[in-house]
Design goal:
Strand order of the largest sheet: 7-8-9
Distance between the termini: 52 Å
Radius of gyration: 19 Å
Order of helices and strands: HEEEEHHHHEEHHEEHHHHE
Helix content: 40-55%
Strand content: 5-15%
């Protein structure tokens, strides 16, 4: 046990050093937008973010060096990490490689879906070197991050970023294992607090299509929830009406019980570029 306790700070320091360059770029080139003050007085400086891709393009050498450092992490090293450190690594890799993919066409694109062609989805292109092989973004997200029985973490959907306005915010710092739970919690709350993408109206909850595409992830047992309604009710204090008014306990109970209808909003695939 003593040896393990000695190793843990070393791993945490090494991980922080690994992701520090990406964290510095995110802090520099990601801009929070749509601030809100919730009914409980909690201030969120940006329920969403815009990305300065021109800035990232000017720092492509640094981004390439960071991606190179990720590619040198072996499967054996990865498997020695705790689950949070692994998951933080994979989320950062997904987000950084997504930015890298955008830069292959920037500024000559209006959406990530402009990359590729009729038979080649941008998410299926194998260009990301990670854990000993060349992978696609789909492979990182669905084959690693969402692999059944490994992490079982629905909040990852508010951390991985698909370079689109409809996406949850790209976080202004890299993820690290030591504070991953706190980071995922903040990302979930900030996304659900954005009433341009999730809001209550009458007896209907209008929510992002993310909850439809990945419904199964929100139906697995997680904390006090094992359903989409349960997950949304768990974060009921973050949700609001379309005029910004907070939900009361009766509204949250209606969501929990399934008495509220759910409608999924259209997804905005336009590039989340800084205006």
């Amino acid at each position: 046990m003593g040896a393990l306790l000695l190793v843990m700070p070393v791993v945490a320091h090494a991980e922080a050093s690994l992701h520090q360059p990406f964290s510095a770029m995110l802090a520099k080139y990601v801009v929070p937008i749509n601030p809100v003050t919730r009914g409980d007085g909690v201030e969120i400086k940006g329920t969403s973010t815009q990305v300065n891709y021109a800035g990232f393009k000017s720092s492509q050498t640094e981004l390439a060096a960071y991606l190179k450092s990720l590619s040198t992490v072996s499967q054996d090293t990865f498997e020695r990490w705790d689950k949070n450190t692994q998951l933080a690594f994979l989320i950062n890799a997904y987000n950084a490689y997504t930015i890298d993919l955008i830069l292959t066409r920037y500024p000559d694109l209006t959406s990530i879906r402009d990359i590729g062609g009729f038979f080649s989805s941008p998410w299926k292109q194998e260009f990301a070197v990670l854990l000993g092989k060349k992978r696609s973004l789909d492979d990182i997200e669905h084959g690693l991050i969402r692999e059944k029985g490994v992490y079982n973490e629905p909040r990852i959907h508010f951390a991985v970023n698909c370079a689109s306005i409809g996406c949850p915010a790209l976080r202004e710092e890299a993820y690290v294992g030591a504070k991953l739970d706190e980071q995922l919690e903040q990302q979930t709350v900030r996304f659900l607090s954005d009433n341009s993408r999730n809001y209550y109206d009458g007896n209907t909850l209008h929510i992002s299509k993310i909850f439809s595409w990945y419904k199964e992830d929100f139906e697995m047992k997680w904390r006090d929830s094992s359903s989409l309604n349960g997950f949304l009710a768990h974060y009921g204090s973050a949700l609001s009406f379309n005029d910004g008014k907070s939900l009361d306990n009766d509204d949250i109970k209606a969501i929990m019980s399934g008495n509220s209808e759910i409608e999924f909003l259209d997804y905005n695939w336009a590039l989340n570029d800084q205006e």
